[in-house]
Amino acid sequence: MNLKLASSNRAISKLTRTALIVVLVLVFAIMELTHVFAMETYKGNTGTEKNVSAFSNQFLTSTRLDKSKYKTAKTKKNKSNKSNSKKTNANKKKTDKKPSISSLSAVLYCENTGEVLFEQKSRSRIAPLTTTKIVTVILAIQNLQLSTEVEISAEAAGFGGPMELKEGEKISVENLIYGSLMLDSSDATFALSEAVSGDDKSKFVNMMNELVKNMGCKETHFTNPVGTPEMEHYSTANDMMQIMKVASSNDIFRKISSAKKHKINATNVSKARTFKNQYPEILQDENTVAVQKSTGSKEGEGSILMSYNYKGLKIILSVMGSPEDKVRENDAKKLIDYAVSSVRGIKVISKGEKIDKAYIKGGEKTRVNAYAADEGYAYLPEQGSKELISGVIEMDEKIKAPVKKGTQVGTYVISVADDPVNKIPLIVKEDIGTGWLPSKIGISNLGTILIISAILLLIIIYIYIRIKIAQIKRRTARKRKQMAYQKALRQIEIEEDRRRRGWNI
């Protein structure tokens, strides 16, 4: 009987140890689930929004790359080095044949490589005409708040233009910039110059000349803010390219100059108006970042200035001295096609490629895959090494549920020689609804279900173990009673046998 009790005790001890192990395993599992589905800190940098002030000094910052970096810089060792496994040319055809253009002067500049890809009499002095307005707008952005209201003078209204501004009309600086860039309206441009320097026209002209001098323009001189033809009002295709390069680096200029339409609310003297971009189709291409054109009063005076971005290939082109609109538009297209076909493109990431995971605050899923919204390329000069291409993942940690399919959750920044050259949006490919309460601390609905299931399983196992232990204890108690009863009976039998034998107890 003692052996049976010992066996029962061993069973209880074994069951207790098993229960302890199961509890520990479940606790560890719950901790792991919590870790997996909780908020995590991204390894990549957190994306930050670039805020461009109306007083930005970025106009005076050169965007030209230092070509010496192409031979000496070291590439970053990160996920971007996948680029080395995708050494695919962005351009199916590569041509060294220079395009033939009909315009008098032109220059084609690649911002990615810092190289002039094409030039033709690029330093010949030509009347810039209304492309002069770019410089006026730059000064307005630097010196004025976009929300500032400007009262139109009689002189400004006298210039006329598509906006049809009236004397005494009050209109914002932002709307005047739209009128100047998108509509090529001289009345709006002149009003901007007055808003900057008042009635002192010579002061504003001096500001214009000082600004372009700081940009490195050595063959440019202005005498008025709108581009009225005058003997001492001149520039070159090369200088105007430099001006457009600096201007297009500003967010405000880039947004307004490439707008397709714009609505101006009613003013104190005019009804609400909606204007469409007056530029031809080629200049309204989705890849056109910024554009300005002029049509001369006589043959050979027209110009086109463009900033063009094709799959990360950033080019600036300046076409001047064109005999007519169709000629310069055709020349611009030739130069764009030449740039796309001649600059060496390296595919870094593919459209739809899974790049990283995004964290969705309060979502039914808290961690979702982030995919490249477009192909990502880097562009190199002939002497450039592919090893100089690198990239950084910048994820936005402020994304809150609900999230729609296609929402941008981060950016993949491609760099060459540590200079950022292309930014590819990272998006989600599914709708993410609002999650349950645990999603507030980073646990998804699935994670919540798994954790609750684990806890319920733990409770069930605990109850089962307690029941089994109680059963074993009851069996043990019964066995002990039986053993005591049998022992007593045995003792009685022994005593009776002694009495029969006449033994003294």
In short:
This protein is an alpha+beta fold and 505 residues long. It contains eleven helices and 17 strands. It is 37% helix and 20% strand.
- Average pLDDT value? 77
Determine the structural class based on helices, strands and strand pairing: alpha+beta
Domains (count): 3
Oligomeric state: single chain
Shape: elongated
Can you identify the CATH superfamily of the largest domain? DD-peptidase/beta-lactamase superfamily
What about the largest sheet? 6 strands, mixed
What is the architecture of the largest domain at the second tier of CATH? 3-Layer(aba) Sandwich
At CATH level 3, the topology of the largest domain is Beta-lactamase
Series of secondary-structure elements, N-terminal to C-terminal: HEHEEHEHEHHHHHEEEEEHEEEEEEEH
Strand order of the largest sheet: 1-15-16-17-13-12
Q: What portion of residues is helical?
A: 25-40%
Unreliable residue stretches: 34-93
Commentary on this structure:
The chain has helices at 2-37, 69-72, 133-143, 154-159, 173-181, 186-197, 201-214, 237-247, 251-257, 325-342, 445-501; strands at residues 45-46, 105-110, 115-120, 149-151, 170-172, 261-264, 273-276, 288-294, 302-310, 313-322, 344-349, 354-359, 367-372, 376-380, 389-395, 408-416, 419-427. It is an alpha+beta fold and 505 residues long. It has three domains: 2-38 and 452-479; 45-53 and 64-88 and 349-433, D-Ala-D-Ala carboxypeptidase, C-terminal domain (Peptidoglycan synthesis regulatory factor (PBP3), Domain 2, Sandwich); 105-342, Beta-lactamase, CATH 3.40.710. Strand 12 and strand 13 form a beta hairpin. Helix 1 (2-37) runs antiparallel to helix 11 (445-501). The model is unreliable at 34-93 (pLDDT under 50).
